[in-house]
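Here is one chain, start to finish.
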Amino acid sequence: MRALITQFLRFGVVGTLGFLVDSAVLLLMLWAGAGPYGGRVVSYLAAASTTWAVNRAWTFRDAARDQPAARQWGVFVALNLLGFVANYGTYAALVAGTETVRAWPVLGVAAGSVAGMFINFAIARFVVFRPATLPDNSRHNPPPS
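Its structure:
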């Protein structure tokens, strides 16, 4: 249980980093003339790539490494589309429905991040970064007496 809590806390720290990347890229995209919706797609991809790399190196460093990194990134981004639906849906609803979030879209990014966090943690922990398993040699090598 302690390992799960530690992973979740690390996942939260990495998520905070992802939020900062997401927000910075969104603001850059808005400055460059992209709209709040298209700009958010780009910023989300930047954040997802960042969080994949840091989660792989730190949060889930003991996970199985049985697939190439590029494939794992693809699986991470593809499966995180479930969390993205909650994330982007919350963001879009708040941008469309509240003047405050239209003026400060980073508030929508924060709300969306929380909405997708639990979904993305479950996907990361149990699918993308599943724990490495040791071969079961207990049948062939009984413990010493």
